[in-house]
Amino acid sequence: MPITLNHVSYTYAPGTAYATGALNDVSLTISDGEFVGIMGKTGCGKSTLIQLIAGLLTPTSGTVEVDGRDINSPSYDRSLLRRRVGVVFQHPEHQLFETTVERDVAFGLKHLGLSKEEKQQAVRQALEAVGFEYETVKNQSPLSFSGGEKRRFAIAGVLAVKPGILILDEPIAGLDPLGRQSFLALLDRLHEAGTTILMISHNADAIAEHAQRVVVLEQGSLLMDGEAGQVLSENTFLKEHGIGVGQAAQIAALLEAKGIAMEPGTVRYDDLLRQMIAIGRRLQQ
Q1: pTM of structure
Q2: Domain check: are 220 and 274 in the same one?
Q3: Do 192 and 112 touch, CB atoms closer than 8 A?
Q4: 3-state class of 167 per DSSP?
Q5: Is 240 helix (H, G, I), strand (E, B) or coil?
Q6: Which of 7, 248, 263, 270 could form a disulfide with 62 if both were Cys (CB 3.0 to 4.6 A apart)?
Q7: What is the pLDDT of residues 55-84, one digit of tens each?
């Protein structure tokens, strides 16, 4: 079942002199298995949006439905949401606190009624999913590892619950190129296995390469919503609204400006490279 926002608005500190509107009448449906990139300038409402979907905030008006049920209804069992939706905030490595990697990754499993063996298996699978050998790291302190490794442990703690919906807020910010590539490959594997993914990022190239659909917010309202190639190829419009444009999209636009026809929606490096190779072959003939 999809995630559905029906005319959702949210105001911080309503009824006070400090009232601030964060979202304004946003309606949105995200189908099962989609990979959606969420973009927009700082302060546009991106983080508020994902906190509403995760049930961490309650809308000022409108409804948020997951699997066809209003998650803010008094009759809704919030434990269902905790199992269904996993959230990875910015710098999740700062949330590590247990004495061992195994204890930290298993923290979210405490109230799921699992046996010791089932918890251990869930932790093992989650650690392996993010590239660790369970036996090697399980008894070590998570705080003794590098920043990128800590982030992977924190993400493993979310994955251990096996959420069907994974929400990420700037998950690749601060990662080195290798760590970024490894993490995005993990998201691709999770997506291929059927996980619905919502990812906030200012990195237009990462969104272009991995997301199927892009939602752009501006001042709390929905500015754009469409297929990734369609949205991210609107270079001039995006720049006018302060949204980053990916390098592949910029190169495709420069080639178009030189009179070299490119396929509509060229925003991914593989698509750009394929067309440039074909152009080179035609010139050699």
Answers
A1: 0.89
A2: no
A3: no
A4: strand
A5: helix
A6: 7
A7: 999 999 999 999 999 999 999 998 889 889
